[in-house]
Amino acid sequence: MPDSGPGSDLVTGADGRARPTWASSDPLLRDYYDTEWGMPVTSEQGMFERLSLEAFQSGLSWATILRKRPAFRAAFADFAPDRVAAFTDVDVERLMEDATIVRNRRKILATVGNARATVAMRDGDSADGSDLASLVWSFRPATTPAPVTLAEIPTSSPESVALARELKRRGFTFVGPTTMFALMEAVGIVDTHLVGSWRRGCSGVWS
Questions:
Q1: Fewer CB within 10 Å, N or C, the chain?
Q2: What are its E.C. numbers (predicted)?
Q3: Whole-number Å distance between alpha carbons of 45 and 168
């Protein structure tokens, strides 16, 4: 989940729509909340992008990542897994010199490595040949949280722990249980919009 801040619940905006405070003031975060966060992502490229951005967000604010998202897309070939999987050491050094993105060598190397793991999974080098999006969605829980306050939103779940373990088994890195739960929130696998938010239930996955 993007940064929420302490002691916050819902704020009703001038448009009459209730949002959590993290999405109520910054126009960029508000637009992300209103149009994208929690909506289903089922394509391989879309899932790879979200997984990559969640990894880069570790230790940083989500607003920072969103502001750099166009630069990330330009630097990482629009997060096309095949193209990123072909990155070389020269590309890594190029990215380390790119001030428009987060210049963290471990995260850059993880993104390249995760692209290769994504391609290997899809191309059948793994045991079952499943694609990244299908694998992530296979960890959808039987029920979703129904938080009334931000304090009630979990930061991990048994499913995110299991997903992290499975991705690591397949060669992915920077995919810990907390990061994977944030991914599951972002792509609609769980619905952690607060009860009372105008976006609660927007994904169509959960009634």
A1: C
A2: 3.2.2.20
A3: 19
